[in-house]
């Protein structure tokens, strides 16, 4: 829970931000950990939860989506990838050793020319949302996003909203999460953006 | 020479051929014709029913079921219809398999199965019978007409060897050569659905042995997109609708007075 990630949809793009700390118990081990994984040319996923589970599951998803791409010559659409990932978590939850991983999935659907954002938790809950947040930071960020989010916002405005969220978390949360990493997906694919 | 290599489906002849597979394909070229045409705004399928006995009770099939009205055109999924040529019993088994595969895809990915993937699934199964011993290959060719968001409207053909290919217009079954050359002459890349329907019916009437067409011999279906919901609509025509379509295109058989009277009592009269 001492981890935090946000996502929001704007006009023709989706943004995901995640903190970059890797911690164990009360000890911060690292402060430049990339916790947003690219899953093919038009999909990305911010992951948090039990360390180890997160990486194992993220790589499992990454490899399976890559296999689908190779086999069928096209990637899964974000909606279908989200459904498959949700199903994997739901099956995992009902196994002997469930993954404890929370996700924010963002992608650009080239068939509909629309950005999509999905909020998924370790219980296999999935919702498509205009903005999303996981972790303690969600308590502050959701209120901020509720007030400032605009689905028609330009990239500059979207980044501005994201900055407000991060500032709010830095100001109010008792733990410092350090730097945030932000990635964007639009029709041109995924890239990192500086805040 | 051929006979020595006939008994096993999976043994190559010295010339490198698999005779049983070739015989299966030969059997299909005697089956009822199935014809498909890809248009810019839809796909059209038509199939010839080989005339069965006069005493065969079609009262249930006449109504047209959820999966189709008869024996040659079937709904595989909301976005795919298929026409089959070959052994009906084998076809039924493949259609069952295809419907399960489509539902499994829906379960995993919450989307309709892409058309090519469904064709691939069936071809994986069919290919197995060219390789694993002791079993007979499926004596069935299929035409798949479908829509998916990746490649929009599509038309595929698969044969007993497990090969499949995409087409703009194609034909399987009896007289497929004649039909293919007719289609080659008349097909245009810009063809719309209405013209495609006309092309299919004209080609069918020229290919089939009988001079006039009716719902007794013809099955017909289209796959289009609902302009409002943007979802695919598979429409398998009911016998009365097939007859109405045929008379609209001037291809219906001229009925005798008695038959016309009976029809009009059923409320199915089509005025010529």
Helices, strands, pairings?
The complex is a heterodimer of chains A (195) and B (272).
Chain A: E1 5-10, E2 13-19, E3 22-24, E4 27-30, E5 36-38, E6 43-49, H1 53-72, H2 78-93, E7 101-109, E8 114-120, E9 126-128, E10 131-134, H3 138-148, H4 155-172, E11 180-186, E12 189-193
Chain B: H1 19-28, E1 34-39, E2 42-48, H2 59-63, E3 73-77, E4 80-86, H3 88-109, H4 115-128, E5 140-148, E6 152-158, E7 164-166, E8 169-172, H5 176-186, H6 193-207, E9 218-225, E10 232-236, H7 239-248, H8 257-265
Antiparallel strand pairs in B: 1-2, 1-8, 2-9, 3-4, 4-5, 5-6, 6-7, 9-10
Helix pairs in contact in B: 3-4, 5-6
Key terms for this structure?
heterodimer, A: 195 residues, alpha+beta, Glutamine Phosphoribosylpyrophosphate, subunit 1, domain 1, five-stranded antiparallel β-sheet, 12 strands, B: 272 residues, 8 helices, disordered C terminus
Describe what this molecule looks like in 3D.
The complex is a heterodimer of chains A (195) and B (272). The longest helix of chain A has 20 residues, at 53-72. In chain A, helix 3 (138-148) packs antiparallel against helix 4. In chain A, 44% of the residues are buried. Chain A starts with a strand and ends with a strand. Chain A is α+β, with helices and mostly antiparallel strands. Chain A has a 5-stranded antiparallel β-sheet with strand order 10-1-2-11-12, with helices on one face. In chain A, strands 5-6-7-8-9 form a 5-stranded antiparallel β-sheet, covered by helices on one side. Helices cover 33% and strands 33% of the residues of chain A. Chain A is globular. Chain A contains 4 helices and 12 strands. Chain A has a single domain (5-193), classed as Glutamine Phosphoribosylpyrophosphate, subunit 1, domain 1, CATH 3.60.20. By secondary structure, chain B is an alpha+beta fold. Chain B has a single domain (19-50, 66-249), classed as Glutamine Phosphoribosylpyrophosphate, subunit 1, domain 1, CATH 3.60.20. In chain B, 35% of the residues lie in helices and 22% in strands. Chain B has helices spanning 19-28, 59-63, 88-109, 115-128, 176-186, 193-207, 239-248, 257-265, and strands at residues 34-39, 42-48, 73-77, 80-86, 140-148, 152-158, 164-166, 169-172, 218-225, 232-236. The longest helix of chain B has 22 residues, at 88-109. The model of chain B is unreliable at 257-272 (pLDDT under 50). The A-B interface holds A 72, 74, 76-77, 79-80, 83-84, 87, 111-112 and B 107-111, 114, 116-117, 149-150. Chain B: Keywords: Cytoplasm, Hydrolase, Nucleus, Proteasome.
